[in-house]
Structures are given as structure tokens and as C-alpha cells.
Specification:
By secondary structure, this protein is α+β, with helices and mostly antiparallel strands. Helices cover 40% and strands 27% of the residues. The mean pLDDT is 95.
Length: 115
């Protein structure tokens, strides 16, 4: 089991690994003071000790969580990727929607800061 985000990402091959690296880059670009760690068996990012976002890698997709309690506009934009109540799943067969993911991470970081 991975003990760092780097180890977690290195545990994947090919496109899943590339996409996790890209997601990690997006998170750190949007929230440069985020602290990385492993939580719930996936990559996690916290600010001031508060969880912001988690990234999961799978053979056919990568996921971002938690996507609950979003603004109406963001909820509508993420709807095509929503699986279950709190997960956005991005298939490895499609390009990552960078702008959407940046907006999502920014929203999650702002939400964490106010809790």
C-alpha cells in the first residue's frame, strides 16, 4: 500500500498514471499550499488540515471526490461525469476536462476553507 501520493501514482501504468499525474498537477496549480497524503486508499489533498479533494486511479478511469454540495452551475457541468452521489469519474477514453476540474478543485478548496 502506498504511503505517499507519488507512490500511489507510481502504482499505476499507462494512461491511468498519466491522468493521475495531470490531476495532481491541476490540484497543486489551483491549491499550491495543499498538503498531499494518502486517505481512504487514494491520493488526498488538505489545506490547513481540512480535506479538499481526493483522486482515485482505476484501469478504465480516474475519479475525483467528494463532489457533493456543489453550486448549481458546477453541479450541472459535472453531471455527465457523476457516478453515485459523490464521485466524478473521467473515462480514460476521453480527454480530461481541465477547465471543469480546475473549477471543481477551486470550489472544493473554497468550501474547505469556510468549514
Amino acid at each position: 500500500m502506498a504511503s505517499t501520493v507519488a507512490e500511489y501514482i507510481e502504482g499505476f501504468e499507462g494512461l491511468t498514471r498519466e491522468r493521475l499525474e495531470e490531476l495532481r498537477e491541476i490540484v497543486l496549480d489551483v491549491v499550491p499550499d495543499a498538503v498531499e497524503g494518502i486517505a481512504y486508499g487514494v491520493a488526498g489533498f488538505k489545506v490547513n488540515g481540512k480535506p479538499v479533494v481526493y483522486l482515485g486511479g482505476f484501469i478504465k478511469h480516474v475519479s475525483v471526490y467528494p463532489i457533493t454540495e456543489l453550486s448549481a452551475a458546477l453541479d450541472k457541468a459535472v453531471a455527465p461525469y457523476r457516478t453515485g452521489k459523490g464521485t466524478a469519474k473521467f473515462p480514460n477514453t476521453e480527454p480530461l476536462p481541465r477547465d471543469l476540474i480546475e473549477d471543481l478543485v477551486r470550489f472544493l478548496a473554497n468550501r474547505a476553507a469556510t468549514r
